[in-house]
Specification:
Layout (H helix, E strand, L loop, with lengths): L1 H25 L8 H16 L2 E3 L2 E3 L2 H11 L2 H19 L3 H25 L6 H31 L3 H30 L4 H56 L1 H20 L4 H12 L10 H4 L7 H7 L2 H9 L6 H8 L21 H16 L10 H11 L6 H14 L8 H8 L1 H9 L7
Antiparallel strand pairs: 1-2
Helix pairs in contact: 1-4, 1-5, 2-3, 2-4, 2-8, 3-4, 3-5, 3-6, 3-7, 4-5, 5-6, 6-7, 7-8, 8-9, 8-19, 9-10, 9-15, 9-17, 9-18, 10-14, 10-15, 13-14, 15-16, 16-17
Length: about 450
């Protein structure tokens, strides 16, 4: 990391020095005429920068439009001079660390120089107003991309963030607003070309008004992001509570916990074999993992029973799909998981519980889990007192088809076990922990959106 930082410092130092030298070498007296235009653009850039809005670490300022206007109406040297002045004034106000100041200085010296040279190269072909406006748009988008790249390279270098991720999560979300700003800048440049101070003053006022409106839009976006973050944090807490329940259940009764993990593995294999999309597969896998979470209501006399249950005890057993579903439904977005958990003891013939659903009324995920549930119960040594062989289990599944289980899913599962060797090792904790992946589930809900640079 230290070597990377030193490399970035070196690169930014070269960029800063080279850009300033390039601005001096390309500067002509004509670039600075009329002088009032340079002063007007400098003032506009300063006022816009003072009114800049910060969303997370993304700083939105109307000074970029002023700099583009300087590039296309005056040239690279005035654009660099105005940009460097903006950075210096901002440094006095915000007092950034030396390394950050160097990165900002290099960025604001480089892209105005490149943009000014690009505008100068394209200008001979931009005689008509439409062509000139198009040229301004090209310069605008090329420079905003260069500006983002230079700044985000520094951010990625210090945080390890991915440039591609930053482009997707930082650059693309603000692109629609920047498109509108680019159109406005092109129109202002076309109108302002060759006009007097009065017109430029009006155009400057328009830019400031647009920036003011953009502030409202971005503040609204920020409030939405904050609300989303609070929802994700709440969901993280809720998932964590259910995760703790599963872990607690594993400590109290490792047989039930590992059975849930086994059913989750079998159910995922079946869902994938059916060609379901990844979201549906993960939904069914999660429901299978949590399908017996309602068993925490069982007293030890039921959970560890070695004799036939009484009618009163069986009535408690029949409550666990509803209890589990109600618990899971408390997690935002987990309603579909809860629906599957609630129905995993329904039967094809309608004689199941808790709702007496039949055939296609039963959610597909519940029918998948039912097959995996029966198979693991009768074959796993730690979930059944006298486990049966795999061939005997296949016979039992087929006997239950069309009454308790979905026949098509039974045949699919048998084929997966026979031809693909789908297995779950109850004898090791590795398969149990890998199937739960609880830390990943909590992280998916808790991880904040990537910060903008």
């Amino acid at each position: 990391m230290r070597r990377r930082n030193l490399l970035l410092v070196g690169v930014y130092s070269v960029l800063a020095a080279g850009s300033v030298a390039g601005a001096v070498l390309t500067s002509t007296a004509e670039d600075w005429r009329p002088i009032w235009l340079a002063g007007a653009l400098f003032t506009l850039a300063m006022i816009s920068d003072a009114l800049a809005l910060r969303i997370r670490t993304l700083r939105i300022s109307g000074s970029f439009s002023a700099l583009v206007l300087a590039m296309v109406l005056m040239g690279p040297a005035p654009a660099v001079a105005i940009a460097v002045a903006v950075i210096c004034v901002d440094a006095v106000r915000s007092r950034p660390k030396p390394r950050k100041l160097l990165a900002n200085f290099a960025c604001y010296a480089t892209f105005p120089l490149v943009g000014g040279l690009l505008a100068r190269a394209l200008e001979p072909a931009a005689n008509e107003p439409a062509a000139f406006a198009s040229m301004v748009m090209i310069v605008f988008f090329a420079m905003i991309f260069l500006n983002f790249s230079l700044i985000y390279v520094d951010y990625a270098g210090t945080t390890g963030a991915s440039w591609v991720t930053g482009f997707r999560t930082v650059f693309l979300p603000v692109l629609p607003a920047e498109c509108a700003t680019a159109l406005l800048t092109a129109a202002l440049a076309t109108i302002g070309k060759g006009t007097g101070p009065g017109t430029v003053a009006v155009l400057a006022a328009v830019i400031l008004i647009v920036q003011y409106l953009l502030r409202f839009a971005l503040e609204a976006m920020e409030r939405g992001d904050q609300l989303e973050m609070r929802n994700r944090q709440l969901a993280s807490l809720q998932v964590g509570l259910i995760s703790t329940t599963l872990k607690t259940l594993a400590l109290r009764d490792h047989m039930t916990a590992r059975h849930s993990a086994a059913v989750a593995r079998y159910s995922r294999a079946m869902a994938e074999a059916l060609g379901l999309d990844e979201q549906q597969v993960d939904l069914i896998h999660t429901a299978a993992l949590f399908h017996d979470v309602g068993k925490f209501i069982f007293p030890d006399s039921i959970l560890l029973a070695e004799t036939k249950l009484t009618d009163a005890e069986f009535a408690i057993v029949k409550r666990h799909p509803v209890v589990g579903a109600d618990l899971i439904r408390e997690i935002d977005g987990y309603g579909p998981v809860a629906d599957i958990v609630r129905s995993h003891h329904e039967r094809i013939d309608g004689r199941g519980y808790p709702d007496g659903l039949s055939a296609q009324e039963i959610p597909l995920g519940s029918r998948i889990i039912a097959v995996a549930d029966v198979y693991d119960v009768i074959t796993a040594r730690d979930t059944y007192r006298k486990p049966v062989t795999i061939s005997e289990a296949f016979s039992e599944l087929r006997r239950s088809a069309d009454s308790q289980l979905d026949r098509d899913l039974v045949e699919l599962f048998i084929d997966l076990v026979e031809t693909r060797g789908v297995r779950f090792r109850h004898s090791t904790a590795h398969d149990f922990e890998a199937e739960l992946a609880l830390e990943r589930r909590v992280h998916d809900y808790a991880a904040p959106l990537p910060a903008a640079a």
